[in-house]
Design brief:
7-stranded antiparallel sheet; Beta-Lactamase; two-stranded antiparallel ribbon; globular; alpha+beta; 4 helices; about 170 residues
């Protein structure tokens, strides 16, 4: 168990250095393409896990008119996985209890000679990038426009991290 915790802390530190530590992202983490569940998290508020992960929870499901029509159970990992695999997520991509809308899925984005799959997600005054490495690691990079972070800079930061992870074999 201590080895697992040490490993998690090392991944958390790596996320901190490459994502929020740059100032271009407010939070960032890693998950597996197999299940979309976050296994490493970091944020500028030092509450990376609280910002990026929430246990399964119920949310109102909205009809076409925007009014609630019932409840839906949200499993955040499955929303990340679905967005990455299919380029869409009808109930949104959920990260840390916050709903994001898929706005731009792209397959085979070239960065420094390596191809990555990416999904850009938006929320009011911010968004997130999901970047999948060829080995199946998904980077989650969250940006906050109220902190003067932009979609472009956070995406570049996330792609650079993906490139680094690719060379680590992840």
């Amino acid at each position: 168990m201590a080895e697992e915790q040490a490993g998690t802390e090392e991944w958390d530190t790596l996320c901190q250095d490459w994502l929020p530590g740059t100032g271009y992202c407010s939070a960032g983490g890693l998950c597996s393409a197999e299940d979309g569940v976050i296994y490493a998290a970091a944020s500028n508020s030092h509450k990376g896990w609280a910002v990026l992960y929430r246990d399964d929870h119920e949310q109102d499901e909205l009809g076409e008119d925007g009014n609630p029509i019932g409840k839906v159970t949200i499993n955040e990992g499955s929303t990340i996985k679905k967005a990455m695999e299919e380029g869409s997520a009808p109930n949104g991509v959920w990260i840390g209890g916050v709903k994001y809308k898929v706005v731009r899925p792209e397959k085979n984005v070239e960065y420094n000679g390596i191809m990555y799959d990416t999904v850009m997600c938006a929320r009011p005054k911010g968004g997130a990038h999901l970047i999948k490495t060829p080995k199946g690691t998904i980077i989650v990079a969250v940006y906050d426009e109220e902190k003067e972070q932009s979609a472009g800079n956070s995406r570049t930061c996330a792609l650079a991290f993906a490139h680094h992870l690719n060379f680590l074999g992840c």
